[in-house]
Structure formats: structure tokens, C-alpha cells
Write a structure and sequence with these properties.
- The structure is a single chain.
- The protein has 320 residues and is α+β, with helices and mostly antiparallel strands.
- A hairpin with a 2-residue loop joins strand 4 and strand 5.
- A five-stranded antiparallel β-sheet has the order 1-8-3-6-9, with helices on one face.
- It contains twelve helices and nine strands.
Length: 320
């Protein structure tokens, strides 16, 4: 960046209403013209390149750092984990030996845990939400970090700190594309029909109220066989998996929607508000209503507004 351009930027910052300076580079312009003249004439001026069906960018993005082991757990988010120390990462019970220069890609509702190979297990997590699987999400659970990927990670961290949400979302999708190009063949993410079936039939957005016995019948096996095989493949009891999946959805709805407790209970597969509230309190120690009020109060103290105030404005719904 030359000094003239820097001065123009500083002047614009001092006076936001001032029009930006026009920079003309004859060499760059001539190169662009040369390439533009080689573009073909389109057969149809209203039909161009299309994004894949259902394409979307990451939302509800978080970046954080960890340096401690973690037990078996699952959640509804995608994660890209960047290790800074050698460690063993378990994905659906499958051990993956990872080290600096690699990235672990975690899909929703996969069980995961971390054990220490050295004195530390330092790692950075990039977690986000997607409504549907995307073509830029690697299928391999482990990928190599190229030089471009390392640069992209630095960009992602800077954008997150600045709160540049749109640019951050695009940058994470670009990182996903880069990781797709460098999968490591140490393991493949090919869940069995059993695990895939349990995930499908237990999806609260698919069918509500499914019990282990019903899921087993849909998969053509006994309940005891389902429990045994699911635990052997994932290292997690199927009942615990279903509870954690439902409560992950419940917490998200409590914190980010204006739905009533009864609506959330139904969305998470519970027949009554009572059974939902009792199970929720047994897990978290407080009722769903108390959880919602606590989250709203914490958000209000930090930001001065309710977490979903803009969504419910003018609807007459009570958010807390």
C-alpha cells in the first residue's frame, strides 16, 4: 500500500461523509481489459453460474481454546479443531492420532473425546451451525493444513475478534474448501447403517417422541441388540446419545427463540411439559424456565437487549 493511498484512507476515516479517492492503475487496468476481451459472449444473458442447491454459510460462530482432556460428548454443531500438541481424538469411538499440521472435522451428533499424548492437549475450536450438510464440509474426519489453510486460520481469528460476521462466515467456508482438497486417509467417516438410522429417527425435526424401542423396531432389531451394537460402535449408550441430542436442541431453543416451554418440549420429542421439565432439571439442576430466564438476564446485562428481542418485536410474545 503506497503512502498516497494510506493518506486517503486516514482522511476518509476523519471525515466519513467524504467520497473515497479514486485510484487508477494503468497497468492493472490494461491487464484486466486484456482478460475481459477474452470472455465469451453468453448464449443466455439471464442464466449464469449457480450455487449448489441448499447452499448456505456458517452461522452462530464461536472460536475458543482448550487445554484439557474431555470425555464423551455430542452436540448439534459442526466443529473444526486445530491441535497444537499431539493427542488422541476419538470420533464415534474411533481413535485418531492427530498432531500440529492437521485439522479434525467434527459433524453434528458425533460423539467425541480427547486424551493427552503429552503434557498438553492445546487446541483451537471453530464451531458453527448449518441447517443442512454442505459441499464445502470435508467428509474425512482429519485433513492436512496447507500453507494457505494456515493463512486462512489467521484471517478467521482476526475477523472473529473484530466481529466481522459476514466475512468470517465466508472465510470459514473457504477454509472448508481448502481442507476438502487435503483429506488424510488415516480414517474415513463412514457411519454404519445402524448409527445413521439412530441419528435419522431420533432427529427432533424429523419425528418427535421416538423411543429406543420404536427406533429399534424401525431398524429391524431388538432393543437390547440396538443398545449393544450402538455402544460397541460409538462408545456411548444410545439412551445417553438421545438425551444429549434432545437437550442440545432444547437449550438452543430456550436461548434463541420465543417459543413456550410446551412448544419446546414437543419439538424435543416429549409428550408433556412435566416429563420434559423433570428430565431437564435432572440433567442441569434447574428447570427449563429458570434456564431461559437466567440466559435472558445474563444477555441483557452484557448487551442491554434480550437475545431474541429483534425477532419477537411487535409480536406480543413474552421473551422471558
Amino acid at each position: 500500500m503506497n503512502s498516497t493511498w494510506q493518506k486517503n484512507i486516514k482522511k476518509s476515516e476523519r471525515n466519513p461523509t467524504q467520497e473515497p479517492a479514486i485510484e487508477y492503475d494503468e497497468i492493472l487496468c490494461s491487464r484486466l481489459l486484456k482478460n475481459a476481451m477474452q470472455l465469451p459472449v453468453p448464449e443466455n444473458c439471464y442464466q449464469g453460474l449457480l450455487l449448489p442447491d441448499g447452499f448456505e454459510l456458517p452461522d452462530n460462530i464461536l472460536l475458543f481454546f482448550k487445554d484439557f482432556p474431555s470425555g464423551n460428548k455430542t452436540n448439534s454443531r459442526y466443529s473444526i479443531i486445530v491441535p497444537f500438541d499431539p493427542m488422541t481424538y476419538y470420533c464415534n469411538g474411533m481413535p485418531l492420532s492427530v498432531a500440529p499440521g492437521m485439522a479434525v472435522i467434527h459433524h453434528p451428533y458425533e460423539t467425541n473425546s480427547v486424551t493427552i499424548s503429552t503434557g498438553h492437549c492445546r487446541r483451537m475450536h471453530i464451531t458453527f451451525e448449518l441447517r443442512t450438510p454442505q459441499c464445502w464440509i470435508p467428509n474425512s474426519p482429519v485433513a492436512a493444513l496447507s500453507k494457505d489453510a494456515w493463512k486462512q486460520l489467521r484471517t478467521i481469528m482476526k475477523l472473529f475478534r473484530k466481529g466481522e460476521t459476514f466475512q468470517l462466515s465466508v472465510a470459514i467456508a473457504e477454509l472448508g474448501w481448502k481442507l476438502c482438497r487435503h483429506p488424510l486417509q488415516c480414517a474415513q467417516r463412514n457411519p454404519s447403517a445402524l448409527v445413521a438410522g439412530v441419528k435419522y429417527w431420533s432427529d427432533p425435526g424429523q419425528i418427535s417422541g421416538e423411543r429406543i424401542k420404536t427406533i429399534a423396531a424401525r431398524l429391524g432389531m431388538s432393543e437390547s441388540n440396538l443398545r449393544l451394537r450402538f455402544r460397541l460402535e460409538t462408545g456411548l449408550p444410545v439412551g445417553k446419545f438421545l438425551r444429549e441430542k434432545r437437550f442440545s436442541v432444547a437449550c438452543h431453543l430456550l436461548e434463541n427463540s420465543s417459543r413456550s416451554i410446551s412448544e419446546i418440549a414437543k419439538a424435543c420429542g416429549y409428550d408433556t411439559v412435566y416429563s420434559f421439565s423433570r428430565a431437564f432439571k435432572n440433567t442441569f439442576g434447574i428447570s427449563p424456565l429458570a434456564w431461559k430466564k437466567t440466559y435472558c438476564q445474563t444477555t441483557r446485562e452484557k448487551t442491554g437487549v434480550l437475545p431474541f428481542q429483534n425477532l419477537t418485536k411487535g409480536t406480543g410474545h413474552q421473551t422471558c
